[in-house]
Specification:
There is one protein chain. This protein has one domain. It is built from eight helices and no strands. Helix 2 packs antiparallel against helix 3 and helix 4 crosses helix 6.
Length: about 230
């Protein structure tokens, strides 16, 4: 446990990039959206003022964890930290940051709704298909995808450290072929109506918390299997 906490401290050496940068980029994107919609006046009706800018914080953090795996991993092992401790410490930091980000986004969503969409009717955090009435469930909807994307970035970083660029290329090609094959199969079998119906029946909690949690656990397990032989 002591080594895992040391790994968290190693990651936090870059606390500006891990903690401050995602929030700063989120704030910048929000300001740009406010300026954009504010300058348009009534050109865009209130029901059309929805933006996906909140994704900026997720993408920035994912990039941060990818960088952490490629830079902090060799440094930590050079300090005699075990691979198990490094992976556990990284997972702990992911969980902490996901929980904090979920709380931040939940608070901003409350402010947005109370202010009438920042006075402009904008739905930046309170996007219709993400909103639920229960605060705990709303926090999960914000936090779990955060953990899933971070786990994805960590996994890609592990693949890079284990198999190099060839492994990343192979992973990308495999994903592309798999997705293309799934699209072809669904099209040939005429399963699109059934797939659309199934998707429409899913609750926001299932789509943005349940399935991403399963994905995070699967990627976490796969990453652990690969990191045991990863080269610093």
């Amino acid at each position: 446990m002591k080594q895992s906490l040391a790994v968290v401290r190693i990651h936090l050496v870059s606390w500006r990039f891990i903690g401050i940068m995602p929030v700063a980029i989120l704030a910048l994107v929000l300001v740009l959206n406010l300026a954009l919609f504010g300058s348009m006046g009534d050109i865009i009706p209130p029901d059309g003022r929805t933006t996906g800018g909140v994704l900026s914080i997720y993408i920035t953090v994912a990039v941060g964890y990818l960088q952490a795996m490629t830079q902090s991993f060799p440094f930590a092992l050079g300090l005699s930290v075990t691979r198990r401790a490094f992976y556990a410490g990284t997972a702990l930091l992911v969980a902490i940051e996901a929980a904090a980000a979920g709380a931040l986004l939940l608070g901003l969503k409350v402010v947005e709704q109370a202010s009438g969409g920042w006075g402009l009717g904008i739905k930046f955090f309170a996007i219709a298909f993400l909103v639920v009435d229960n605060p705990l469930l709303q926090w999960l909807i914000y936090a779990v995808p955060f953990a899933a994307l971070s786990a994805m970035a960590v996994f890609v970083g592990v693949v890079f450290k284990r198999w190099g660029q060839a492994g990343v290329y192979a992973l990308t090609i495999a994903l592309g072929v798999g997705l293309a094959g799934a699209v072809v199969l669904i099209t040939l079998q005429d399963w699109w109506p059934a797939f659309g119906g199934w998707f429409a029946e899913q609750t926001p909690l299932a789509l943005f918390a349940g399935y991403p949690l399963v994905l995070a656990l699967l990627l976490g397990g796969a990453g652990w299997l690969a990191i045991r032989r990863a080269i610093p």
